[in-house]
Structure formats: structure tokens, C-alpha cells
Write a structure and sequence with these properties.
This protein is α+β, with helices and mostly antiparallel strands and about 130 residues long. The chain has a single domain, classed as Nucleoside Triphosphate Pyrophosphohydrolase (Alpha-Beta Complex). It contains three helices and seven strands. It has helices at about 45-60, 110-115, 120-130, and strands at about 5-15, 15-25, 30-35, 40, 65-75, 80-90, 105-110. Strands 1, 2, 3, 4, 5, 6 and 7 form a seven-stranded mixed sheet that branches. A hairpin with a 2-residue loop joins strand 5 (about 65-75) and strand 6 (about 80-90). The protein is globular.
């Protein structure tokens, strides 16, 4: 049976720094898992509704700032088809981040710091690299 899922991701930028989250668990190698806010779109939601809901749930951020689609993408593997939309959110003021139970910590990193960080996964570095300065 083939499955299609749709998700949205949020690249959050304040000044020249990007929000990077730490998952509340570690991978099979005992390493931290780095992340950005992302989630599945529920059947009844629009992408923007999902974006607003999950930003509030994951980092306690109410979306009032400017946002735009950074890129769309797809992954196919076996019988699964994943369609994604990545949004760039430019914040006007530094937010008071409150993490959900899914995350243990966060960092604000510049694009250069992200590109030079050997621990960040390639998919995350690539997400940030698609953002024009």
C-alpha cells in the first residue's frame, strides 16, 4: 500500500542566527539529535495552520512575523511518498523560547557556525543553506 504524507518545517531566523533544537533523546550512537520545528499536516489543516499550531506547541512561538516558503521538496522511499514545505520565519524581536517535552535545549547559530559544525546532520545544514542572506 502506498502512503503519501505532507509535512511542514520551520527555519526560524532572528538577526543573523537560526534556531537549532536538541531532541530529548539520543541516536543509536549516543549522540544528540539536532532538529528544527517540523510536523505532519493533519487531514483538516492547511500548511499555514499546521505551521502556526506546531510553532506554538514546540517552541511557544505565536506566528505574527513575516514568513515565506523557502523551498518545497519530496522524498520517495519504498511505498512512501513524503511531500514537504519549508518556511523561513524572520523574527523582529528575540522570542522567549519555551520548549515542548520533545526538546531539551536550543541554540542560536549563524549560517557559518552551522556550515562549520561537524555534528549537525546534512539535511539540517542543507535546509539552512537554501536560505539566501
Amino acid at each position: 500500500m502506498q502512503k503519501t504524507k505532507i509535512c511542514v518545517k520551520a527555519v526560524i531566523k532572528y538577526n543573523d542566527k537560526f534556531l537549532i533544537l536538541f531532541k530529548n533523546k539520543i541516536n543509536n550512537l549516543g549522540e544528540k539529535i539536532y532538529d528544527i520545528p517540523w510536523w505532519w499536516i493533519k487531514f483538516w489543516e492547511s500548511p499555514i495552520e499546521a505551521l502556526k499550531r506546531e510553532l506554538f506547541e514546540e517552541v511557544w512561538l505565536k506566528l505574527k512575523e513575516q514568513y515565506k516558503i523557502s523551498r518545497s521538496w519530496l522524498v520517495t522511499k519504498n511505498n512512501s511518498h513524503l511531500i514537504g514545505i519549508t518556511y523561513l520565519i524572520n523574527l523582529n524581536k528575540k522570542p522567549n523560547i519555551k520548549l515542548s517535552f520533545e526538546h531539551s535545549n536550543y541554540l542560536w547559530l549563524t549560517k557559518t557556525e552551522i556550515q562549520n559544525n561537524e555534528y549537525l546532520p546534512n539535511w539540517l545544514v542543507n535546509e539552512i543553506n537554501t536560505i539566501s542572506d
